[in-house]
Amino acid sequence: MAAFSANSRSLFDYPKYWAECFGPAPFLPMSRAEMDQLGWDSCDVILVTGDAYVDHPSFGMAVIGRVLESQGYRVGILSQPDWRNKEAFRILGKPNLYFGVTAGNMDSMINRYTADRRLRHDDAYTAGDEGGKRPDRAVTVYTQKCREVFSDVPVVVGGIEASLRRLAHYDYWSESVKRSVLMDSTADILLYGNAERAMVELTHRMANGENIRDITDLRGSAFLCRDIPQGWSEIDSTSVDQPGRVERQKNPYEGAHPSDCDDAKDIRIKADKAQAEAAPEVEAKPLSIIPDTQAIKTDPSTTYIRMPSFDQVVNDPVLYAHADRIFHRETNPGNARPLVQNQGRNDIWVNPPPIPLETEELDWVFEQPYKRVPHPSYGESKIPAYDMIRFSVNIMRGCFGGCTFCSITEHEGRIIQSRSEQSILDEVEKIRDLTPGFTGVISDLGGPTANMYRLNCKDKKIEETCRRPSCVYPSICVNLETDHKHTTQLYRKARKLEGVKKVVVASGLRYDLAVKDPEYVKELVTHHVGGYLKIAPEHSEDGPLTKMMKPGMGSYYEFKEMFERFSKEAGKKQYLIPYFISAHPGATNEDMMSLGLWLKNNDFRVDQVQNFYPSPMASATTMYYTEKNPLKPLGRNNDEKIFSAKTKEQRTLHKAFLRYHDPDNWPMLRKALRRMGRADLIGSGASFLVPGESRREKEVQRRESRKPRAQSRSSRSAPRRRK
């Protein structure tokens, strides 16, 4: 296994593959007839996706396909193939290099089931909004079908479903800890995150004759590893998260811990050198063990972190939470080390994250010859996800917020990758000129977070050494750029383009960042709000907010004041719509009651409520499963136990508190409030949460209480006759 360098090749550095002579396809072919029209006898790469094929830069398979096409490869797409019929995987023939498999833009399980595990009957990424067009656990099913039809063709898996399952993870739908998706799918390699750089390098190396199983130094990849090669040194994960010498045993938490380990200054590890030198050696391993005192300073090109094994995290909630803590500390491309986790006969080896794309590279990705419409085979059928984004522009990638319930950081990373202003403006003009139905309104200029465009660390060296999971929690880092001038300037130029009547900002907004730049807030509120602006405080109470890594309500009130003041100055009647999560780990019944009161006092009547959804590898999911807090140093005697609403009754009650105004919820809320000793909140008037029972309800209750208790047959005993 070769060591990898922190410096990755540019997307522009590779010589084009010979098939470049065919030129770009109008649409990437989905049938043999389309291949014939293009003059292709075969595809070099076939991408298998759980989404309908929309040739637009908001759809992952279109991006990967067009990027590989630009490198000279012939790329075909199998969109939503019938997994029950293996012939559906033969339509385009046998690929020359590999199958690339993804579940689509969404995790197939989240796409198919609600937070309460109820089956959905719609699918926004399918023509006609039809549910059931992709299998559960699509990455695994599609990969196995590819193996079945062409057993000798390598399979590469990627996309968000694979990304979030690259290591052992809690699976909400089976209520169990599952192995890496590499184990279940039998794929050759997994590429996580936005994988353009890794996919381009992998494809060129395979085209040059390298065996996929020998490509082990690719950043942003994970693969099965039977033997650790010579030249690598191992760090036990407990050395990273605990000071002093750690006995090589299952329990890594008997002893003191560093205060927090959330900042670079907290990562200093103190230990006795004599004890470190006396640490037992690892038998039958051709590697060296790094002493605890040096673990934090190691070279990621020659050292890796040994995480607790699958068997350990399955049987020990503390070790599962510890693994989560280590995983989230090793996400910075500048200092992350490979992670290794044993899963039976094999180890899973996860290389550090890919180097983020430079602005010129990201521009190039978005400027490929996308048709910006669905494939013609769908006819007039509507694809809701496309209708939602067809007039929007993605201006950046990544998120440094670190919200524990969100998967963006685990997938895209926390370093912001931004497009150039000119590239964005050019795309607005393409929408104006090429997208059918454009009426002059750009529906969104945004991304994972609308106002993180070009907000990066002020110092590159600090950025490359930082291990904070969030740049804005518990407070905004002093090294973070918070001046929104580039975003403000972009908004002004976009709305001045000919043919553009209005530019709306609809992506999520980080309001605690926005208030640092009142000029930006004024620009946003005056020109770019379509009557309503949605923001996400998520909760009103400090307990749940600390588990979410979200700011307190002080930032919300500060932003609300600005929003209302600037709306009034602009002569506009606009509304701020807050979003909240129910049943999040750390939220007790009392917390949900307080949030319900907050909503009523502020005259909010929430129509739709999102119950917490435990997605794989999110820190909040770890809290839900283990009832431990991976945001703090862990210990066997740690008294903090995180409450999570898990039963149907608990989750329904938490949702009911947010819909206090719904009469259907009043009986449940009254019962809960009396049980909590808060019957004082039942009654008529502004100070009460729910009204008392009506006369009719009271009469029904009286009748029910007067009914004699029916005796069960088993309790009735007739006297026996004597014979």
What oligomeric state do these chains adopt? single chain
The whole-angstrom Rg is 28 Å
Task: State the CATH class of the domain at 18-224.
Answer: Alpha Beta
Taking strands numbered 1, 2, ... along the chain, how are they ordered across the largest sheet?
2-1-3-4-7-8-13-12-11-9-10
- Approximate strand percentage: 5-15%
Q: CATH superfamily of the domain at 18-224, please?
A: Cobalamin-binding domain
Secondary-structure topology with pairs:
Elements: H1 32-38, E1 45-49, H2 60-70, E2 75-79, E3 98-102, H3 108-112, H4 138-149, E4 155-157, H5 159-163, E5 169-171, E6 176-178, H6 181-185, E7 189-191, H7 196-207, E8 221-225, E9 233-236, H8 237-241, H9 273-277, E10 288-289, E11 303-306, H10 310-315, H11 317-329, E12 339-342, E13 347-350, H12 359-366, H13 384-389, E14 392-394, E15 396-397, H14 408-412, E16 417-418, H15 421-434, E17 441-442, E18 444-446, H16 460-465, H17 485-495, E19 502-503, H18 511-514, H19 518-527, E20 532-538, H20 542-548, H21 553-569, E21 575-582, H22 589-601, E22 610-611, H23 619-626, H24 648-658, H25 666-675, H26 695-706
Parallel strand pairs: 1-2, 1-3, 3-4, 4-7, 9-10, 9-11, 11-12, 14-18, 17-19, 20-21, 21-22
Antiparallel strand pairs: 5-6, 7-8, 8-13, 12-13, 15-16
Keywords:
single chain; 723 residues; alpha/beta; Rossmann fold; 22 strands; disordered C terminus
